[in-house]
Amino acid sequence: MLNDFIEKVVIHEAEGGRTKDRTQQVDIYFNFIGNFVLPLSEDEVEALQSEEARRAEEIAERKRKSSKKSTQKRNQKRAEIKAKAEAGAGDQEAQSQLAERKQYQVRATVKSYRKMRDDALSGDPIAKVRYEKTLAMRREAYHSKKSEQTA
C-alpha cells in the first residue's frame, strides 16, 4: 500500500569518499505532494552545527600535527646536513647539499615575497596589510643589522 503513495525515489551520489563522514542523500517524492522535507527542530539544528564545528576542529588539529611533524623532520635533516658540513670541512657532498638547500630557501622566499606583493597590488586588503607588515619587519631587520655593523 505504501507504493501507492510514493511517486519516485531519487538516490544521490554519496559524498565524503570512503570515510566515516560519508553521507548520501535520498529524496522521496510523494504523489500529489512532490518532494517533502521535514523541517529540522532547533535542537537538531544545534546538534548539526556543533557536530560540524567538532569535525572542523578535528581536521584542523590533524593538519597542525602533520605540519608540526613534517617541520620537525625537515629541521632535523637540515641540522644533520649542517653538522656534516661543519664537522668535515673536506666533505664536499655535505657542503654542496647545504648550499643547495640555502639556494632553494632563497628562491622560495623570493617567490613568496613576489606573490605577496602581486596580491597586494591587485587590491586584496588582507594581502596589503600582510605585505606592509612584512616590509616593516624587513626594514627593522635591515636597520638593526646596520646599527650592529657600525657599533
Average predicted local confidence, pLDDT: 87
Strand order in the largest sheet = 1-2-3
Q: How many whole angstroms does the radius of gyration measure?
A: 29 Å
Series of secondary-structure elements, N-terminal to C-terminal: HEEEHHH
> What kind of oligomer do you see?
single chain
Principal-axes geometry comes out as elongated
Number of strands: 3
Helix share bin: over 70%
Which structural class best describes the helix and strand composition?
Answer: mainly alpha
Measured between the Cα atoms of the first and last residue, the distance is 95 Å
Which stretches are low in confidence, meaning pLDDT under 50 for 5 or more residues running? none
Number of helices: 4
Strand content: 5-15%
Largest sheet: 3 strands, antiparallel
Give a quick precis of the structure.
This protein has helices spanning 2-5, 42-87, 92-121, 125-150; strands at 6-11, 26-30, 34-35.
Give the topology.
Layout: H1 2-5, E1 6-11, E2 26-30, E3 34-35, H2 42-87, H3 92-121, H4 125-150
Antiparallel strand pairs: 1-2, 2-3
Characterization of this structure:
β2 (26-30) and β3 form a beta hairpin. The protein has 4 helices and 3 strands. It is mainly alpha-helical and 151 residues long. It has helices at 2-5, 42-87, 92-121, 125-150, and strands at 6-11, 26-30, 34-35. The radius of gyration is 29 Å and the shape is elongated.
Identify the notable features of this structure and list them briefly.
151 residues; mainly alpha; 9% strand; 70% helix
